[in-house]
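ENTRY TYPE: paired fold submission
RECORD: A
CONTENT: sequence, then structure tokens
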Amino acid sequence: MNVLIVGFGNPLAGDDGAGFRAAEMLAARVRLPEVRVRAVRQLTPELAEEAAQAAVVVFVDASVEIRPGAIDCRRLEAGRTAGVFSHHLAPESVLELAERVYHRRPEALLFSVGARSFADHSLSGEVQQALPALVGQIEDLIERIVDAGKPARPGGPPETESDFFSVMH
């Protein structure tokens, strides 16, 4: 089962770089042929093609909506957004483009870490402390996803797609 991980944010804008830095850490640690990791400054329409090729897309970003250093994960659906053809997209817009243009709708999750400051050139203490746990949670999820796509017994068929959903809970 192919997995695309996209960590995004500006690494020069304090905690906004959390997703970017998490993706860099994952790229160095996850060495599976089924997994592709991208660290990008912003989501762009070009990511829709890669998303369409994946069974699962994991987005990673900073959030001001949760407590600094807290980690949240939620399932995403393709969103009907007005600004789909802009140079900066929301994760749901990338999924919408994948569906509209490539007729593929991958499963998708958004991992967020609570941000404190976007003013410094480095991550806040809370986000620095949360990064290892964030990366660990994503690694655990990837392992479960990849295992769900393997045959239950040698020579047997891969697990069914409904089995995949059980690994996300």
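RECORD: B
CONTENT: sequence, then structure tokens
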Amino acid sequence: MSTSSRARLGILLSGRGSNFEAIARNVLAGRLDCEIGFVFSNKPNAPGLARARELGLPSGAIDSAGVERTVFDLQVVDLLKSHGVEWVCLAGYMRLLSGRFVSQFPQRILNIHPSLLPAFPGLDAQHQALTHGVKVTGCTLHFVDENLDAGPILLQATVPVLDNDTVESLSSRILVEEHRIYSEAIAWVLKGNYRIEGRRVIKT
């Protein structure tokens, strides 16, 4: 385990992990004052894990198939804590965390969602936005609780919905903003200059 005094992030992903890559680039370039303690996936063949290995970052997986949710989550918690993880960043992690997991990292779990919450929670948010005909959507960086896409909101970024948008084109433009605000939010919370009042996150 590192003896560094810098905060240690645990990154959880289930797929390609593009948000993980964006965070990692900023950490490795010294633009974020933290280090990545562990990259985890519930999918052993997730492309994001291969990328973590290429970057020389500690990483591993536990296959979630057929494992009861709380049992699985506690296995993940043990793994993260064994690597000194203090903050957890969800980067396309396609599982709803149990209350037992959340309680181990209170107000220290972050997630990015491709809509302006509370609009369009859950899966296929970009498709939902197009189906509903909204003119503006975006992404939301929020603290995680045991409910789906429901924790206090840290940052949001807006993206216009164009008349000729497809799910793919809209998703691509939202992703640019996701990559930007995720690292911005990490830098903010690591400085500790905020407080949470109910559902509101207020800079101090």
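NOTES ON RECORD B: The beta strands are 7-13, 34-41, 59-61, 87-90, 109-113, 136-143, 153-160, 194-197, 200-203. Helices lie at 18-28, 47-54, 69-82, 99-104, 125-132, 167-191.
STATUS: closed
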